[in-house]
Amino acid sequence: MAANTSETMTINMGPQHPSTHGVLQLILELDGEIVQKATPHIGFLHRGIEKLSEHRTYHQIIPLTDRLDYLAPMSNNLGYVLAVEKLLGITDEIPERVQRIRVIMTELTRLKSHLVWLACHALDIGAMTVFLYCFRERESITDIYEKVSGARMTSNYFRVGGLAEDFPAGLEGEIRTFAESIPAHVEEYEGLLTGNRIWQKRTIGVGKISAEAAIDIGITGPALRASGVDWDLRRDNPYSGYEDYSFEVPVRTGCDTFDRYKVRLDEMRQSALIVLQALDKLKPGPILADCPKVVLPDKEDVYNNIEGLIHHFKIVTEGFKPEIGEIYQGIEAPKGELGFYLVSDGTNHPFRMKIRPPSFVNLQGLPQMVEGKLLADVIAVIGTLDIVLGEIDR
Amino acid sequence: MSDQAIVEKMKTKFSSEILSVVEFRGETTVTVKKERIVDICTFMRDDLGYNLLCDLCGVDYMGKSPRFMVVYNLYNITKKQRIRVKAPVEEQNANIDTVCTVWGTANWHERECWDMMGIKFNNHPDLRRILMSADWEGHPLRKDYPVQGPDREPYQGRLS
């Protein structure tokens, strides 16, 4: 065989490959070690959540949303309940305590999601220790999840107009201790990676994408902020009382895997700060909005009050009927903009629910980030995009 | 610029294309004819600053005419504003021009819309199924597609 040949080789990566973070299949056309063309194939985890939701009442859909981005279930819960609240027009009725608890839990969720991202991203590149450290901290968050909602992963905790339950006694102190420990832990991860020459070689200048190209392909979240676009929905289109907290939006301009890593680590520090601020502002109060036609009544009322019983029965058996209309609600999920587009035809279930999953759109940027680069960079880029196939395939 | 001002600008430029403007819960939805959708989207991006196509999807209003609606949820990253543009698509002639040339992100969204709703996107560079397998028959998110899947007993779920 000649030393130089124009022949390319097509190899298959996934869907059962440990570094594709789920059932992602990539068809890679290689010239030596250089990737000429990358074609992602998705849909292996398609469960038809959008179709199912057209046949469920609004409350019955909340557990389905847990299974979108299963590493950040409460963010999905939040996006969905905010969308339904907007559709119902009860956004201003949500009690303060509910908003605070939602912020605390979604910021812990952001930490949880970023910890799994860092663990797996580092493991893919060959840094085993970080994985163990990150999962140690993640364990504390799953413990908090369990105390709050009874489940470690599929939380199903938020309700339209409120929460399933209040915080159990003593949990606030535990969350505070955990949030206070985060900056030191992030320093620890940085100590393992940031100055590490192997880490730098594998990440600096890898998977570059300019701000214009990133916006064109629809990339959102930390990946876009590492390309120099200063945009965070929590600050720019605040929801759930985010305007009450002071926090920074980390932005970097390197456009590469290393800067995306730095942005996410800075976000973890900011999330811990937001959790502490929210705990400071957390005051006792109701955990359900006072909208008896749509919000499940307090258990006390259900047992002791005939109206409460009737409302409970009606909402559980029939659900509620928002008026005809359509809304779009986007939130800053750990991976980018998570959007819910809901169309109501005036019945007790959505006429159409379209989910805008951040991973689906971010993955679309993969081919242009890896084509012309080394095969080993594909692994780094899959990690840095922080994709979860549960929400890509829905 | 308020949503009203945006809509006025659209009306000035495309007076004969705009079918309706609806405001609901503080969100503006502009329904336009599908024929000049690429021109309208280019105008939205270049002159009105909607540089991000957040989401594109189809909605099936079975029994109504036109049956489908293609929905574009747009976002202006500079001004942090949203707007929604919709274009009706007939059942008999279920196609609309692609906006891939306006926003690259439309590529996969349009593939998904074709896969799930069966709406064709003219001039799309790569119109294949994306979530379902290549040999799948039918378009699952259409209202006449059974939720339990083809060839199965009807779903006797909690809502029936």
Structure, explained:
The complex is a heterodimer of chains A (394) and B (160). Chain A is mainly α and 394 residues long. Chain A has two domains: 9-41, no CATH class; 49-393, Orthogonal Bundle (Cytochrome-c3 Hydrogenase, chain B), CATH 1.10.645. In chain A, 49% of the residues lie in helices and 12% in strands. Chain A has a three-stranded antiparallel sheet with strand order 1-2-3. In chain A, strands 6-7-8 form a three-stranded antiparallel sheet. Chain A has a two-stranded antiparallel sheet with strand order 4-5. In chain A, a hairpin with a 2-residue loop joins strand 2 (25-31) and strand 3. In chain A, helix 3 runs antiparallel to helix 4 (96-125), helix 4 (96-125) runs antiparallel to helix 11 and helix 6 (171-193) packs antiparallel against helix 11 (257-281). The model of chain A has no long low-confidence stretch (mean pLDDT 89). With 160 residues, chain B is an alpha/beta fold. Chain B has one domain: NADH:ubiquinone oxidoreductase Nqo5 subunit (Beta Polymerase, domain 2, 2-Layer Sandwich), CATH 3.30.460.80. The model of chain B has no long low-confidence stretch (mean pLDDT 87). The A-B interface holds A 42-43, 46, 48, 50-52, 54-57, 60, 86-87, 89, 213, 215-218, 220, 229, 231, 236-237, 325-328, 330, 337, 339, 341, 343, 348-349, 351-352, 354, 356, 360-361, 364, 393-394 and B 24-25, 27, 29, 51-55, 57, 59-60, 71, 73, 75, 77, 80, 82, 84, 103-105, 107-109, 116, 129-133, 140-141, 145, 147, 155, 157-159.
